[in-house]
Amino acid sequence: MSFTEKIGQLMQRPGQDAIPNDDVPWWMKYAGRGLGTVGGGIAIFLGVWVCTGILFAEVNCLIAGIWQMLAGFITIVIEAPCCCMFLDFVQNISNFMEQRPYYYRGGLYIAIALPAVVLCANLSTIFGSGLIFGTGVIYGMMSLGKKGSRQDMAAMASPTGSAPLPVDQKSTLMEDPDVWRP
Fold it and tell me: Domain tally for the chain?
């Protein structure tokens, strides 16, 4: 058993299958979960900082800070329910989102990250909500799945649907003598 398999067993959730059912790389799963956990915590901290905008009569920044703290809390609840184990409903929400496809989480994170930036576009909201937005982008990439092989992509790109690979792997448009060069 390799070191990464041992770490994977330690990071498993209760009741999770030992063999993953999807073809998403392990590092991308941990990147999404890690960025969501760390980004949610940073978003909460920066949301408190943005709320100090009320001292300068910026009500939009107060609302944006509250929204950012709420978005950070939702992200932590979904990605790291162990951080909020004192709340009874957290594990249910996390299990519900765990059973959904990756694009649900990606869409949720992107949707909850944008309002704070729209309301008060300062560095704290851009960075805090940007981390949550980045988590949504990672989950969106995970929902796309693995890239196809070279043969599959060449077959899909051809008009007939089954194109053979070129014999010369180094041929490009620039090496073609019929192509005009400036």
Answer: 1
